[in-house]
Amino acid sequence: MPVETVLRTSPEKEQVDEGPQQVLAVGPLQAVTPRSFILTGLLLLALFHTLRVARDLFLPLMLAFFLSFLLSPLLRVLKRAHIPEAVGPRSC
Q: What is the pTM (predicted TM-score) of this model?
């Protein structure tokens, strides 16, 4: 007998996972209220105002961050040339 025939005639049923029949929900779906839009708008306004006030702090930090990425290959080359790290940036 071929293998296919034996498998088809076996009395055991294949167990197939069909997944959940119903979707469980925690609670009823609620519409978005105008209050949530107002609170979200106020949060965004406060965030942008804070960033605008603090730009005197953030601008130098971001500039230093980008310059460190920009100059790191040059400092790596100087390090391979056995120039100390303290002297490397002064020579650039």
A: 0.39
